[in-house]
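Postdoc handover notes: sequence design on the structure in folder B. Input tokens:
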């Protein structure tokens, strides 16, 4: 019977994992050449360097294509493009904040980076890795196309044929296009700034010819509702880039626990199943991380991993078998003081540090996967994470190609972070209007998320029926049948009525599942003070949260947490009140200068109260 179970287990993981791309995980452990820094650029709103509109064809063999060298062979050669140091942008970084003419720009920018490479030819491969490019990236090296990627917030890599690389004078060109389209993810309409550019790190990685492409090492999914025992079970897999030689072995080591186990490689994907003695479980109070080393004959990789169980059990969320209340905050991947996209370890420290100061044990990373520095720092700090793909509002739900694009971003998000203990929720979208077509689309994504990772909860920010019962608002979105956590956004007192409407409002859901408030908030311009009835004043926002907190104290027992909207003010082209917004969504508890608003202290006090109650 055990043998049969193992065959079924291996077959299941083979089916779902090999369907993913060639994305390499845990890239920080790889030998690499950083390509961050200054890149020269050409602004190309007509895509002159890409497409010949007279003949309606790509400029594949045209020397004036912008992916080709701009160096003249001789003085008679015609060159109508050129890259010069005068026109440079920093990578990683969005283009919007770097030059005034880019503030509202949506279109194509060509980036070029020259580099040298000291390399020994032999048993190895090279991959170009991008942390993220918004939105479409066409990548060329030394005049040859390596590939194209869509999706502004997830990583991708392309293999580089060694024959393409030179020891001196390599030129890498990336065509970046951040135009919005109805059949993309996200779609045309969003409530955040469409920062364009190569927004996260770029590096050239070197790996052995036969290498470890990806792996998962996590505690076995909890189905009992009990705390893991003293020697909990670990399950996972190791994915090689190709089928191993006969007799190939895979070794797992945790030096701190003096643990080592050898597995026979069973193909490109090898299932792992073992027990770990004397394991300290990861939690917000004790965010313990262990060095995990994976070895094969030709390769080695290592990562810092925390071990914990997370599950929706009945109407509770159980972390390591114990109920947890999530004191959260929603966060955009933006540094408002500098009006730019967040990308660095320092940025992550600022954002998560502000969340900790509020008293949070959880963050909702809205509305897209954030930089990897965020989830890795959350692991170290013990902050729980909701991670989401940008299926936002009115996606083209009836289009199979759009579903494919959403699934690709879901897979890339999960592949990058499936060993992060902090990540407890994979979210497949936000505030998607209810229809049978939409529900089927979202159900497909939830199913795929569970196939890729069954050790975490899956959810989405759902829609609310505001008139089901006279004295109750009911979260009865049909997608609630398929999620683990019933999450919803509500703005009583900002969109519809005044904050005192909370006094007569109660909430419930027909689903016997945990209930979570994924957003609530109201705008306030930092430093604008008036009476509590004056919209956009700090006093109005303060009143709003006072009434919200009083309402939350009446929530049903299934209420397990909240992530108010939002940590800090952020740029949005939808917010155009010239006195109070001026292109900013002002719902932050911090303003765009980093100052705390009065509402910050309302939420901080309530979170401190909850924490004390839970400790006793």
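Designed sequence:
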């Amino acid at each position: 019977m055990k043998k049969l179970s193992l065959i079924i287990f291996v077959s299941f993981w083979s089916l779902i994992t090999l369907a993913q791309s060639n994305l390499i995980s845990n890239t920080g452990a790889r030998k690499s050449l950083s390509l961050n820094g200054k890149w020269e650029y050409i602004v190309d709103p007509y895509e002159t360097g890409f497409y010949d509109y007279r003949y309606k064809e790509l400029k594949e063999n045209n020397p004036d294509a912008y992916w080709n060298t701009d160096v003249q062979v001789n003085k008679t050669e015609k060159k109508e493009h050129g890259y010069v140091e005068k026109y440079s942008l920093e990578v990683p970084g969005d283009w919007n904040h770097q030059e005034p003419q880019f503030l509202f720009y949506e279109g194509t920018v060509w980036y070029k980076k020259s580099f040298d490479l000291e390399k020994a030819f032999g048993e190895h491969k090279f991959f170009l890795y991008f942390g993220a490019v918004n939105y479409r990236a066409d990548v060329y090296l030394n005049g040859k196309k390596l590939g194209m990627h869509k999706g502004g917030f997830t990583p991708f890599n392309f293999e580089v044929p060694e024959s393409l690389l030179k020891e001196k004078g390599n030129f890498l060109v990336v065509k970046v296009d951040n135009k919005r389209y109805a059949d993309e993810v996200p779609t045309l309409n969003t409530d955040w700034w469409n920062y364009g550019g190569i927004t996260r790190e770029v590096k050239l990685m070197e790996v052995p010819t036969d290498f470890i492409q990806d792996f998962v090492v996590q505690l076995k999914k909890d189905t009992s509702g009990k705390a893991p025992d003293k020697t909990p079970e670990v399950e996972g897999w190791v994915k090689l880039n190709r089928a191993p030689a006969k007799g190939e072995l895979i070794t797992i080591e945790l030096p701190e626990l003096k643990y080592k186990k050898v597995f026979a490689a069973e193909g490109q994907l090898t299932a792992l199943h073992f027990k770990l003695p004397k394991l300290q479980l990861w939690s917000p109070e004790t965010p313990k991380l262990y060095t995990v080393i994976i070895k094969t004959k030709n390769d080695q990789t290592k990562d810092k991993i925390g071990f914990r169980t997370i599950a929706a059990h009945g109407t509770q969320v159980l972390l390591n078998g114990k109920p947890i209340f999530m004191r959260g905050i929603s966060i955009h991947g933006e540094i408002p003081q500098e009006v730019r996209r967040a990308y660095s370890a320092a940025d992550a420290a600022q954002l998560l540090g502000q969340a900790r100061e509020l008293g949070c044990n959880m963050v909702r990373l809205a509305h897209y996967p954030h930089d990897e520095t965020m989830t890795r720092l959350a692991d170290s700090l013990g902050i729980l994470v909701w991670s989401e793909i940008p299926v936002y509002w009115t996606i083209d739900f009836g289009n199979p190609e759009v579903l494919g694009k959403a699934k690709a971003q879901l897979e890339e998000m999960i592949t990058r972070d499936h060993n992060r203990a902090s990540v407890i929720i994979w979210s497949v979208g936000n505030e998607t209007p209810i229809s049978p077509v939409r529900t089927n689309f979202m159900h497909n994504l939830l199913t795929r998320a569970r196939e890729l990772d069954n050790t975490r909860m899956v959810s989405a920010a759902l829609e609310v029926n505001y008139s089901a019962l006279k004295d109750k608002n009911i979260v009865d979105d049909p997608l609630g049948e398929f999620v683990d956590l019933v999450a919803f956004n509500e703005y009583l007192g900002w969109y519809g009525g005044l904050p005192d409407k909370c006094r007569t409002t109660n909430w419930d859901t027909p689903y016997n599942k945990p209930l979570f408030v994924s957003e609530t908030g109201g705008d306030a311009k930092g430093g604008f003070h008036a009476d509590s009835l004056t919209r956009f004043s700090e006093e109005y926002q303060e009143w709003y949260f006072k009434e919200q907190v009083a309402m939350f104290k009446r929530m049903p027992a299934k209420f397990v947490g909240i992530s108010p909207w939002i940590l800090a003010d952020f740029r949005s082209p939808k917010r155009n009140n010239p006195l109070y917004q001026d292109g900013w969504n002002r719902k932050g508890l911090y303003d765009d200068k980093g100052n705390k608003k009065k509402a910050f202290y309302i939420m901080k006090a309530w979170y401190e109260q909850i924490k004390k109650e839970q400790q006793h």
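Context for whoever picks this up: The two ends are 46 Å apart (CA to CA). Don't rerun without checking with the PI first.
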